[in-house]
Amino acid sequence: MRFSPAAVALALVLATVSSSVESQKPDDQIDPRSVALMTKADAARAAGQLSEAQDLLETALAIDPRNRAAYVAMGRVATAQALPGKAVRFYREALAIDPNDVTALSGQGVALVDRGAVERAKENLVKIRTLCKTECAPATTLAAAIAKGPPPAVVTAQNNTTVPPKEKEAESAKP
């Protein structure tokens, strides 16, 4: 009788732990519905329907938030929409799932170059070259983007060090 409370407590702990382990899926098992939506989104992106592709990818991620490839595809859509900040965020989500994804590292590096963060893009290039061991397509793509440099509008904004006078700033803010 003295062991009954301890035995009951141990049984409850084991039942709780075993039921939580059974419900978890391995990271490499992505929901097939999410994969199907991602395939449709890739076709929509290829057809130039970026808004539809974005909607499909968001749905794919709602179904299975562990779908790293969907985050990479969202980054590509954001890059095509000329939204490098958003693209960096999606690539960062993909890298949170798999930090060694060279496609996500390359895409993030290209988006960083588009934002003017060339030094951070070079860090990504070093990581990619370390992971690939030999020259690979993601490294070549990122190296070409770094060599090309940021868009002229970003360079102009970075080089502009003059601040407008207070009066002009206040006048432009009034409707």
Tell me what you see in this structure.
This protein is mainly alpha-helical. It has a single domain (28-151), classed as Tetratricopeptide repeat domain (Serine Threonine Protein Phosphatase 5, Tetratricopeptide repeat), CATH 1.25.40. Helix content is 76%, strand content 0%. It has ten helices and no strands. The protein has helices at 4-23, 32-46, 50-63, 68-80, 84-97, 102-115, 118-132, 137-148, 152-159, 166-173. α6 (102-115) runs parallel beside α8. The termini are far apart. Residues 17-26 have low confidence and may be disordered.
Rg, nearest Å: 24 Å
Low-confidence stretches: 17-26
* Full CATH superfamily name: Tetratricopeptide repeat domain
Largest sheet: none
Our count of domains comes out at: 1
Rounded average pLDDT: 82
**Class in CATH?**
Mainly Alpha
Tell the overall outline. Answer: globular
CATH architecture: Alpha Horseshoe
Sequence of secondary-structure elements: HHHHHHHHHH
Percent helix range = over 70%
Please give the alpha-carbon distance between the first and last residues: 83 Å
Relative strand content: under 5%
According to CATH, what is the topology?
Serine Threonine Protein Phosphatase 5, Tetratricopeptide repeat
How many individual helices?
A: 10
Structural class: mainly alpha
Secondary structure tally: strands: 0
